[in-house]
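Hey team,

Filing this mostly as a record. A colleague (T.K.) asked me to run one chain through the structure pipeline before their review meeting, and I want the input and output archived in the tracker in case anyone asks later how it was produced. No errors, nothing strange. Just documentation.

Input sequence:
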Amino acid sequence: AIGRKHSAADIERTMELVASMNFPHVNMDLIAGLPGDSVEGFKDTVEKLGVDIDEALERFMGDESFFIEMLGKFEKTVEDNPVAEYFEAKDLEKALKSAHTLKGVTGNFSMIPLYNGYFRIVELLRAGDAPKAEEILRDILPLQEKIISCINELE
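Output structure:
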């Protein structure tokens, strides 16, 4: 619509490159709502990231508008549960509580790789293996950011 069509693969490669440079924060502007944008396009993109939209919609009784409304709250939920900050502050109790919250939320949205990561983080923290739990968190955070970017694009 505006002559700048980038594929999901282009964006993914670029974000992986930027992530490899270890910037503490990365910002990406996404433009949505252009002619040709669709919920189906969103679905295709997030399914490539391991999100099972059909399964998630079943949990929301097939109510797509309610599902999208709740997806819009995901980023705030992540911000309200800053697991990485709690690891950095060595507050493992808060890290466990926040990881447990995000495990539940990502499970409800069928964000399978994130759910599996948070599930493992919770297990490891309960077993006293904070270094391994933090390593898994570092591994899943780039994917979490990609999913949030896709959600923001949909809104």
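Quick notes for T.K.: The radius of gyration is 16 Å. Residues 130-154 form the longest helix (25 residues).
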